[in-house]
TrEMBL record:
Keywords, sorted A to Z: Isomerase
Keyword Ligase recorded: no
InterPro entries: Aldolase_TIM (IPR013785), TIM_sf (IPR035990), TrioseP_Isoase_bac/euk (IPR022896), Triosephosphate_isomerase (IPR000652), Triosephosphate_isomerase_AS (IPR020861)
Listed transmembrane segments: none
Pathway info: Carbohydrate biosynthesis
Quaternary structure annotation from Swiss-Prot or TrEMBL: Homodimer.
GO terms under biological process: gluconeogenesis; glyceraldehyde-3-phosphate biosynthetic process; glycerol catabolic process; glycolytic process
Superkingdom, natural source: Eukaryota
A GO term from the CC aspect: cytosol
Assigned protein family: Belongs to the triosephosphate isomerase family.
Name under which the protein is recorded: Triosephosphate isomerase
Length: 321
């Protein structure tokens, strides 16, 4: 009901009633109903902003695109990790794309370390940049590592931590990932914190126990949740072409949010974005995005393809929620 409609009702009720007390009570009730309705709308409008991250990993950009298109995905994984010119072409594609505004979706791309300055200098201002990893503490004699301080010096606002490839291949423990997240946040970086189970763990029925333990190791060490996006990435669906069904993704996201409510706070559970990663593509993104607890995506191989734009556009599914 509009303000004008309420005013008309005020005049009508005062005119029709012989009791000014009754009229005033009715008017106050009308205003209360409108206020409650507007509060509900405000809550929806102030919900979790959709988030789409593109993890370029360590693959050749244009060759990955072409080889995937011609059904040679395995070969595309083993070629070199790209050139500056290839990176510039990918950035140009992103810069020319028409996507929803920043009010609707937050977009972050994560190129390999050596290309961070190039991408930062060329990328459109409404897209942000993430590093793919950083060291667990202040820099020092740690050959091959990149410190959080270095990322800040480059003006990189985001970092991906705890990705399954680092957990499984480089044996990063839950505690080590938790320490990395805490240190990065302490310096002002924003973190995409990854959790997820292997196929063996899912088939044994331990998905939530695994994901809860990974999340617990982070939650015990941090308080700055507004700067954290949790990425649920079932390991068995990363780069395999297998995708958790929308129902499976929603189930884990719901349980993760419930875990945050029970173990951190209701506010953190309500406001923290939980995104899905695992063979997300242009064909399945809208159905996944429609699930109430799926707040976006962390995209691997498809982030190097034109369909990444379609994935970003899937944010409009949530626009009117």
């Amino acid at each position: 009901m509009s303000v004008a409609a309420i005013a008309a009702e005020v005049d009508e009720r005062f005119a029709a009633s012989t009791s000014s007390q009754y009229a005033m009570s009715s008017v106050l009730s009308s205003f209360a109903a409108v206020e409650a309705k507007n509060a509900g709308l405000t809550k929806r409008k102030m919900g979790r902003k959709f988030f789409v991250g593109g993890n370029w990993k360590c693959v050749c950009l244009l060759l990955h695109f072409y080889l995937s298109a011609f059904s040679f995905p395995d070969l595309s994984i083993h070629v070199s990790n790209g050139t500056t010119e290839e990176v510039k072409k990918i950035v140009t594609t992103l810069n020319e794309a028409e996507v929803p505004s920043e009010d609707v979706v937050e977009v972050v791309v994560s190129p390999p370390f050596v290309f961070l300055p190039v991408v930062k200098n060329l990328l459109r201002p409404d897209f942000q940049i993430a590093a793919q990893n950083c060291w667990v503490r202040k820099g020092g004699a740690f050959t091959g590592e990149v410190s959080a301080e270095m990322l800040l010096n480059l003006g990189i606002p985001w970092v991906i931590l705890g990705h399954s490839e680092r957990r499984l291949i480089l044996n990063e423990s839950n505690e080590f990932v938790g320490d990395k997240v805490a240190y990065a946040l302490s310096l002002g970086l924003k973190v995409i914190a990854c959790v997820g189970e292997t196929l063996e763990q899912r088939e044994s029925g331990s998905t939530m126990a695994v994901v809860a333990a990974q999340t617990k190791a982070i939650a015990e060490r941090i308080t700055n949740w507004p700067n954290v996006v949790v990425a649920y990435e079932p390991v068995w669906a990363i780069g395999t072409g297998k995708v958790a069904t929308p129902a499976q993704a929603q189930e884990v996201h719901f349980e993760l949010r419930k875990w945050l409510k029970d173990n951190v706070s209701d506010e953190v559970a309500t406001s923290t974005r939980i995104i899905y990663g695992g063979s997300v593509n242009g064909a399945n993104c809208k159905e996944l995005a429609a699930k109430p607890d799926v707040d976006g995506f962390l995209v691997g191989g498809a982030s190097l393809k034109a369909e990444f734009i379609d994935i970003i556009k899937s944010a409009t599914v949530k626009k009117n929620y």
